[in-house]
Amino acid sequence: MNGGRVYGKVGHYPRPPDRTARKIKNTLFDASYEHRKKPLLTQTLERLRPIYSKSELDALRIDSMSREGLAQRSGRGFVNRDILETVLGNLLECVAPGSHNAPQLRNQRRELSEAIEEVADQLYAMVAQSFLAVTDDTRLGAALETAFSLLWELPRLKSRALWNRFASLKDPAVWDAYLLHTGISREKLAALDFRSQVDTAIQERTFESYQDFLGSLNLASVLDYQLQLVGSTYPGWRVLFYHDVAHALTRSDDLEESPNIHRIPVPLLPRAISELGGRYYQADLHPETQIGDANFLEHPHRGVTTGQTGIIGCGCVIYPSTFGGLSVKVKQRHPVIGDFVEIGTDTSLLGPVQVSDYSTVGTNTEIYGFVEIEQRCRIGSSVVIGTIRGAAEHPGRIYIGDEVRIGDGTVIENTSEMDLIIPNRSQIPARSHVANDGFGFPRYVTER
């Protein structure tokens, strides 16, 4: 029964056969596909084998799917969401074996060669379906190379996932009740600056300094437990990995040491991955946002939003916040965030705002328009900084120099065509109101 009509009965016409779907089933995984896949798979496996330890290979579990299912079209030719969820879970297993799929299921691939081939077929099907949704089947060759480009980048993606997990050790909650129960006192922990030690390890790109630091405190065994805690229960590194996959599928540049693999941007699929990340974790990261690694998203389920032209560096700590745009023009219209920046809860950065390295933006702060914040600034909570279209159709920017301190509740606004410049190392008291004096210097309107 469908809409009151019974198909196939006397007096009614059956639905016409879906020739397009039949064509896809016959062509997605044909002999030509197998011929083109074989050399790419061989080269990719040679590249990937060294990045896995024996324990990781023992933990690796890749869920398999039938090729008939992979070739099944959904909607206007796009692979269905259930399949996409499975593929993303398998990719997560590739960068962090044992972190996603349940062990000992009959439909799993455990050997690396079988596992990578299974993921290759799944990726190819998703990419091919995406191209077929907007064009004909002439790009199936490009779909294969684009799928393998993602596998070729697994060493980089695996490293990024590890550093994103490590960055989560900045959260003091990784010293949980279990660790405290083993005899580490709160007083001892309170006297130690673990966050700076994590940052040093990120800068040096080695865990050694952090391990040595823990070892000097007789806490050498703590690191493995904390990384397991983060991998098992923290959502931030997972949503960042989903973003890494989606972002890679928007790229068209050459791959490092690539065996003649050429990738092109994939339609639809990156946005679908981003949407799934938002559904799981309420973190809406646009797939074209450029995001570095070793970042810690704290409580992303409360909402983190980035825009298409946004840039976020490495080593950052980002609480629930919005990095949005103000312009509807196709140009740089979202914030640019440097390295080791901390963005507080319920903060909104709107427009081409720039926040440079090692700066901190406090909670419930709003910064919008043409604002440039230089290095090592500390902006308090509930601060408003913005350029306003008043008498000037095109207001000048607000430039905040190095190491400026801005107190809580301050308002800094520029309605003049001339730039407002806050000099280096300025100290702006809490609840100040600062405007442009007409010559580009700050004028304190009131201190409330």
Radius of gyration: 26 Å
Q: Based on DSSP secondary structure assignment, what is the total number of beta strands?
A: 25
Q: What's the total helix number?
A: 15
- Detail the poorly predicted runs: 1-25
- Lateral arrangement of strands in the main beta sheet: 3-6-9-12-15-18-21-24-25
Report mean pLDDT, rounded to a whole number: 88
SSE class: alpha/beta
| Mass-distribution shape | globular
Number of domains: 3
How far the N terminus sits from the C terminus, by CA atoms, comes to 70 Å
β content, as a range? Answer: 15-25%
Helical content class: 25-40%
Major beta sheet summary: 9 strands, mixed
Describe the structure.
By secondary structure, the protein is an alpha/beta fold. Mean pLDDT is 88; it is low at 1-25. The strands form four sheets. A nine-stranded mixed sheet has the order 3-6-9-12-15-18-21-24-25. A seven-stranded parallel sheet has the order 4-7-10-13-16-19-22, with no helix packed on it. The longest helix has 23 residues, at 112-134. The protein has 15 helices and 25 strands. It starts with 18 loop residues before the first helix and ends with a strand.
Topology:
Blueprint: H1 19-27, H2 31-48, H3 54-59, E1 62-63, H4 67-70, H5 81-95, E2 108-109, H6 112-134, H7 140-152, H8 154-167, H9 177-181, H10 186-190, H11 194-204, H12 208-216, H13 222-233, H14 236-248, H15 269-281, E3 283-285, E4 290-291, E5 296-297, E6 304-306, E7 311-312, E8 317-318, E9 321-324, E10 336-337, E11 342-343, E12 347-350, E13 354-355, E14 360-361, E15 366-368, E16 371-373, E17 378-379, E18 384-387, E19 398-400, E20 405-406, E21 411-414, E22 420-422, E23 427-428, E24 432-436, E25 442-447
Parallel strand pairs: 3-6, 4-7, 5-8, 6-9, 7-10, 8-11, 9-12, 10-13, 11-14, 12-15, 13-16, 14-17, 15-18, 16-19, 17-20, 18-21, 19-22, 20-23, 21-24
Antiparallel strand pairs: 1-2, 24-25
Helix pairs in contact: 2-7, 5-6, 6-7, 8-14, 11-12, 14-15
